[in-house]
Amino acid sequence: MGTDAFEITVNFVKMVLIFLMMVQIVPLLVWVERRGSAYIQNRFGPNRVGPLGLMQLLADAVKFLTKEEFVPGRGYPFIYYAAPVVAMIPATLALNALPLSIPIHVEAFQMMGSSWGPYIFKFQGYDFGIGIVFVLGVSSLAAYALLLAGYGSNNKYSMYGALRASAQTISYELAMGLSIVGVILLFNTFSFSEIITQQAGPLSFGFMGRNVEIGWLPNWGIFYQPLGALILFAALFAEANRLPFDLPEAEGELVAGYHTEYSGFKFNMFFIGEYGHMLVASILMVIFFFGGYTLYPWLTPETVAAWFTGFSPTQASLLTALVLHVVMMTKVVFFLWIFIWVRWTLPRLRYDQLMDLGWRTMLPWALFNTVATAIIVLIARTGGVN
Amino acid sequence: MLWEAIGFYSLALFLLFFAFKTITVPNPIHAALYLVLTMIGVAAVFFHLGAEFIAGVQMIVYAGAVMVLFVMVLMLFDLRAEIRSFSRGLFSGALKVMSAAMLAGLALGAANSSVAILEAPAAPLGGGDITRQLGIMLYTKYLYAFEILGILLLVVAVGVVSVSRIKGGTHARH
Amino acid sequence: MPDIETFMHIGLPHYLFLSAILFSFGMIAVLLRKNVIVMLMGIELMLNAVNLSFIAFSKESGSLNGHIMVFFVMTIAAAEAGVGLALVVSIYKKFHEVNIRFFEHLKG
Question: Most C-beta atoms within 10 A of its C-beta, which of A238, A347, B62, C70?
Fold first, then answer.
């Protein structure tokens, strides 16, 4: 956590801020989703409250807060109340482990009569060396929220939704993990920040003792792992329970799936969890395959730092980190928009089609991708010798 | 030192509480959910011991996959709380508790005597690169065992499918 | 009489004691519970306790062999859970009961 009071405070505030970011992005995404769906389906969407319907979010919040609390009589109240809370935990923990910009270097300074610093603050809640394993482990807990909701409601639609959700999560976790193995083999590390650092600069790699460099392309993972990127993106849709994989809450068959019995703010918490998952999924895609917070050749840590030469080192570091954060969030927002775009474009899969896709298509291709990546990486690193 | 002790004791307290609830609650689904919390607690203890990678694997394998399967199967059966969830018979029950207590005593005694053997701890594990060393060891020194585990998993997968196969269903082709 | 230092200085024995208590909890579940699934859960608890002592020994002895062993135990545990649950599912389909008392005639 830190060595002195200032560092501990800042680290704690950082975590709270990242959580608030996740919560605050939800109403915006709901607005984008409703306006975007209206745009795709040639409707108007919410346009009465405020300019462009933006105040609709506030009206929604008031509605959620003032709705009647309803607890199913024959359910299990504790589990029923626990489920929405559990829904928010995995996304929050995973989001805190993801680096959102470069570290901020704070010079030594005077405050309240004593000297503090220097510090290095990472632009993330906490940084373990094994970030990828932590994020995978935490997001595998997401199935419990749905299971608890289904069981606690004691409603057959909720139960069907919960069972579908857990089967789906287990099935698609395999393909997701295997496609990430390709990335780990490629970058030779478990740490997110190191993956981003390796993607800086132009596309260049050594192969069989020769160095290939293509100056006009960035060194992004997507050029090395196109199949892995595709499989990971599809599996992330399934993990976030978004259409075309939203069988757990298929409203045509199961009323509303696992959150049939939830109303008001508890329903909203499930919503926050789902959008948090989307956010984590988009950030993972950006980190693994699209260069994280760098945009070669215009916006790299060096070029952005050169803009702020007139400022003090602390200010320059802070401003650089913020600019790069904006760069990263722009990419993330693009992927969030793809999530919404796909939802209003593709039809829902049938359940056996979903299982077929997971087990018979994505898993074999992910295995193939892993083996092929391992062989190619071995040849490229050792030059075909040994 | 103080913080390490506080961390260990609070973790151990939670862990033992959850484990105790796992084996005493009558409703099997509640038992499974308490066991999930126990697994997460064990992962936290692994983290406390500096085995971050193993902690992550514990979360993925136990909490994320095995226990989801347990909870799913229990929900499929739709079992209510059992009236008599423990074995009947005062005498046999007492015998079983006594044997468990004897085993616990043996384990504690072994733990106590093993401390003498390991009095001088060897060099601590080298820094943050445990995961890399682990991978290298797994694929060189223990490669044979690793391959055998792969074969075991294959056999188990085939066996499980053949044991629990349902005749008919959506995939039946007659 | 152990002094305060024994309690404050967290070392191998503390982890081993924790592991032993967890192990006996798991064993009590296997011996006393009648629900087959809860008995399987007891086995998982015992395996976890063993993993805990492996990791503690590994840290104390400074070698990674314990970590490797935990890997193997986890794999076996996952396989065991899969086989056990498949058996329970097929038993349930036949008897509509998961209480161990109902298939005592399997004893022969």
Answer: B62
Cα–Cα separations (whole angstroms), residue B122 to A233, B117, B118, C38: 45, 12, 9, 40
Are A163 and B72 a contacting pair at CB < 8 A? Answer: yes
Express each pLDDT in A38-57 by its tens digit.
Answer: 888 888 878 777 787 788 88
Single-letter amino acid, residue A337:
W
Q: How many helices (H) and strands (E) does chain A have?
A: 14, 6
Alpha-carbon distance of A374 to A378, in angstroms, equals 6
**Which residues touch A333 (CB under 8 Å, ≥6 apart)?**
A282
SS (H, E, C) chain C: CCCHHHHHCCCHHHHHHHHHHHHHHHHHHHHHECEHHHHHHHHHHHHHHHHHHHHHHHHHHCCCHHHHHHHHHHHHHHHHHHHHHHHHHHHHHHHCCCEHHHHHHHHC
CA dihedral A332, A335, A336, A341 (to 10 degrees): 160
Contact A130 B53 (CB under 8 A): yes
**Separation CA A14–CA C19 (nearest Å):** 36
B113 touching chain C per CB within 8 A? no
Tens of pLDDT, residues A264-313: 788 888 888 888 888 899 999 998 888 888 877 777 777 777 787 877 88
Residues of C in contact with B70 (CB under 8 A): 37, 40-41, 81, 85
Q: The pTM is what?
A: 0.85
